[in-house]
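Let us work through a complete example step by step.
Step 1: write down the sequence.
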Amino acid sequence: MEIMQNDWINFIKTGSIPEREHFGENGKITLYEEREAKLIDFPQREIIEELQDTGLFTKIMKSFMRGRDENFIA
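Step 2: predict the structure and record it as tokens.
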């Protein structure tokens, strides 16, 4: 918990977390477990990348913004 708190404080103060890679550099995120922090692959990254250029995300966003998607769960 202390590692996560220190990382959060550093991020709020400086906009970055020392000794942690930025997400865009490697596609990994920091997983905080027990008393350690480790880099893991972003969950479902391959699926998200495949769908990225299909227009699906834009369609969902526009539908939600218009309030027409009754199945949207937030």
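Step 3: interpret the result. Residues 3 and 36 are 7 Å apart (CA to CA).
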